[in-house]
Amino acid sequence: MTAAHTTVxxxxxxxxxxxxxxxxxxxxxxxxxxxxxxxxxxxxxAERCLYCFDAPCASACPxxxxxxxxxxxxxxxxxxxxxxxxxxxxxxxxxxxxxCPTEVLCEQVCxxxxxxxxxxxxxxxxxxxxxxxxxxxxxxxLFTRAAPSGKTIAVLGAGPAGLACxxxxxxxxxxxxxxxxxxxxxxxxxxxxxxYKTPEGFAQRELAWLLSIGGIEVRHNWKLETSAQLAxxxxxxxxxxxxxxxxxxxxxxxxxxxxxxxxxxxxxVATLRQTTDLSTLPIGRRIVVIxxxxxxxxxxxxxxxxGAQNVSMVYRRGPDDMSASKAEQEWAQxxxxxxxxxxxxxxxxxxxGHVKAVRFADQAMVNGxxxxxxxxxxxEADMVFKAIGQQLxxxxxxxxxxxxxxxxxxxxxxxxxxxxxxxxxGDCRAGGLDLTxxxxxxxxxxxxxxHTQLANTASA
Length: 460
What we know:
Largest sheet: 5 strands, parallel
Oligomer: single chain
Number of domains: 3
């Protein structure tokens, strides 16, 4: 869907239209889902920290932020020092503070949580420190570039992994050229997250801060479409980093999937993020979201916020198998989304070319295998969002001779691929958790490996 596609077929029983709410209501519903702490609140929360030695929260963080250290500095009133400790480990610390599933990472293992059931609000404290410094126009830069190395690196993909890699390399004195397929940089941060998680253009504000280090050129609307392009980049640059994300989506493979009103949830989320006036965005009265991950939750909750009356999120297994965290599932339910489990789609019915209902087969686990029970259910729907996972568009990479594992890029711990001089990280890399914070760590780690290899080559 794009913001321009606002014409909806006039079909009896189908109710899809824009402008279901007042302007004030749109603004209220899509305001910051987790408002910033006040300075007083931040100090009080920081003082709850026990400043543990060998803190489990730091070990649980994929980027290994020294959590007790940055929190102690907040308590001492040293926000600049706190922000530096965060951003040294995680250059996208502001975004991760907003979207990282802290409830299953650092906050889950917080000693306050294990003892009292109420962890220190690490994510909100991280946001407090980073925002205070990152967006202070009078603040001196936290980081500066090293002397130019004369080396050039191509970074494909301007998402979390690519941005972390580019910023780290630029700090080390290398010249970076970022190539991205979209008209804006940011990747998942710009196009793939619910609008209420990062309001007020935060993704672009953080991007501007990252690029302010210097030494990074961004080229938009560049797509990797042939193995010859990759070969040319390898010849032109001293190293290449692939932070391609997952550009493809899985199909339901059921009759009726091509009907009007059936679309990928990732496209819906991206369109919403790029729509400046939400009153122009059509939404159905009855929405069915198929899937059990974070994208499914984002699509379902935002449908409800846009004014949909009935929103169902349907998953083929049980709640414990959903990739969306418990907190995300509860967030959806709090907003009126109804979660259904053990239902697999078997067909989409339409009227005059537009979706009107989805049929599901009830399932049960029998001897470790999902089996239909013979019962079927039908959900009426004006719109259907597919959120059953994404996949790497890997044909070009395979043609280039790159080793793949499970359809994603095989690498070593530092991100080096089977092609000399080419590293990879983020969701396109095999064996990951598909988390923003992990993608940042991949990019940072690969940047240091690239730097080490270039330095060794120069001294050889």
